[in-house]
Amino acid sequence: MTGVHIAHVTKSYLLPGGTRKHALKGVDLDIAPGEFVCLLGPSGCGKSTLLNILSGLDSEYEGVVAFPETERLRISYIFQEARLLPWMTVRNNLRFVLDDGRGSDAHQRIEGWLERVGLAGYGDYYPSQLSVGMQQRVSVARALILEPELLLMDEPFSSLDELTSLRMRMELLDLWDQARPTVVFVTHNPMEAVYLADRVVIMTTGPGRISHELLVNTELPRPRDFEDQRLWQLSREAVRHLMDDGGAGPSAGSPIGVVKTT
Amino acid sequence: MSQETLGRRSLTIRPIVLPTGLFLRLVGLLALLAAWLLASRSLGGELMPGPVATWEFIVREYDRGTLFFHVWATMRRVLIAFSLAMVAGAVLGVAMGVSRVIDQLFEVWVVVGLTVPRIVLFVMAYLIIGLNDRSAIAALILTVLPTIIVQVREGTRALDPKLIEMARSYRRSPPLIFRRVVVPQLMPYFIGTARGALSLSWKMIVLAELLGRTSGVGYQISFYFQFFNMNGIMAYGLTMMVVLAIIDFGFSGILGRAAFRWRKPVRLAG
Question: ipTM of this predicted complex?
Answer without folding.
Answer: 0.87
